[in-house]
Amino acid sequence: MTLHLLKLCVGVESIADLEARRAGRRRKPPDHHVHVTRMVPRRANELLDGGSLYWVIRGRIAARQALRAIEPFVDHEGVGRCRLLLDPLLVPVLPRPFRAFQGWRYLAAKDAPRDLEKAAPGAIAMPEKLRRELRELGLM
């Protein structure tokens, strides 16, 4: 059974902002993106069965990245951590409000928002600010 993770994207204003921050950290196009977290997900098998990491940006689930691997490790200070290896492709999803939380949360496949291109064909070509305004007006 597929399971997903939800993670707050603190300090990021938009999907484009997240992309720009990621691009600024790398020297060459990666074959995966790494996100380090403190806790190791206990349901790793379900997450790696087609799961994604869904990013919450400005109080809304906004985008996802497919999970490729989960690698627990111990950092140089002896603290246990976890690397989430993610597909580099950031996929916008149909935005949905989500309250703030700490760490990450599990998200059942049935509760995951649909990819934006499938839910609203053509909306991906719109500027993100316009999509946000249309959402706030209840038009998307």
Based on Cα principal axes, name the global outline.
globular
What value does the average pLDDT take? 87
How much strand content do the residues show? Answer: 35-45%
Helix content: 10-25%
* Rg estimate, integer Å: 15 Å
Largest beta-sheet details:
7 strands, mixed
Q: pLDDT below 50 for ≥5 consecutive residues: which ranges?
A: none
State the separation between the terminal residues, measured CA to CA. 30 Å
Overall number of strands: 7
The number of helical elements comes to 4
Quaternary structure of the protein: single chain
Structural class: alpha+beta
What are the secondary-structure elements, in order, as H or E? Answer: EHEHEEEEEHH
Give the topology:
Elements: E1 3-8, H1 15-25, E2 33-37, H2 44-47, E3 52-57, E4 60-74, E5 80-86, E6 91-97, E7 104-108, H3 116-119, H4 128-136
Parallel strand pairs: 1-3
Antiparallel strand pairs: 1-7, 2-5, 3-4, 4-5, 4-6
